[in-house]
Amino acid sequence: MNASAYKSFNVEFTDIDRQYLESNFRLAETIADFIGPHCEVVIHSFESFEKSVVKIVNGHHTGRELGSPITDMGLRMLSAFERTGEVTPKSYFTNSKDGSLLKSTTCVLAGENGKPIGLFCINMNLSHPFPEIIKTLMPDASLPHVGVHENFSSSATDVIEQALEHAIEEVQNDTSINLKSKNKAVTKVLFDNGIFELKEATGLASERLGITRHAIYKYIREFKA
Q: Which residues form the Transcriptional regulator DauR-like HTH domain (predicted)?
């Protein structure tokens, strides 16, 4: 089945449709960066089946580039969507032109008024040696490992309290900060990390640091200035 069979489905895209597709471009880059170089991420536009690829990261895995056409699988998914309205992503295994084994998933993207406007596809190349793939998911052992701290919590209070503890520890370990300036320095760390966007942060910080809310607000005004 070829793209011409679906020419009746092609609709004139609105600016909102194009903007929605483009809003997924950064997500495509994020996923490819997260999974690593063995992952290809592709966004197809239904505005043109013959030149449907509007975003692609690591396209060397399938030999595609911007302006490449939609796949037969993409057309089958579109046909199924028209019949059933099914948009749930499904994982499947397939092979690229060079015979590489790919684990893939594809979902339909909806635009203005809920109409299907494209596909978001992820292809993981499994033909490389597995240790090589795993290596891309792990820290580089030859480099100093610098972890990024992130609080995974089920409540905002817990996020604030953990952020407070880390800010206090950071300031206490900085010998260049004198005792008188420590509360302001802790508040600055919390401010720079956006913690005061959480409603309870000012109250919890003032209580933990033993200073008034007014003092916290004064520090924040100074930082903003």
A: 164-221
For residue range 120-159, list pLDDT tens digits in order. 999 999 988 888 878 877 776 666 655 666 667 779 999 9
C-alpha–C-alpha distance, residues 82 and 102, integer Å = 26
Q: Judging by beta carbons within 10 Å of its beta carbon (0-12, 13-18, 19+), is residue 45 exposed, middle or buried?
A: buried
Over residues 34-73, the pLDDT tens digits come to 999 999 999 999 999 999 999 999 999 999 999 999 988 8
Task: Quote the pLDDT of residue 1.
Answer: 37
For residue 100, being part of any structural domain is answered with yes
Helix axes 201-209, 156-172, angle to 10 degrees: 40
Task: Give me the number of domains the chain comprises.
Answer: 2
Domain span at residue 87? 3-136
Same domain, 92 and 48: yes
Phi, psi of 49 (to 5 degrees): -70, -35
The domain that holds 52 is classified in CATH as 3.30.450.20
Nearest-CA neighbor of 186 among 204, 175, 199, 172? Answer: 172
Q: Which of 129, 121, 126 is nearest to 104 (CA)?
A: 121
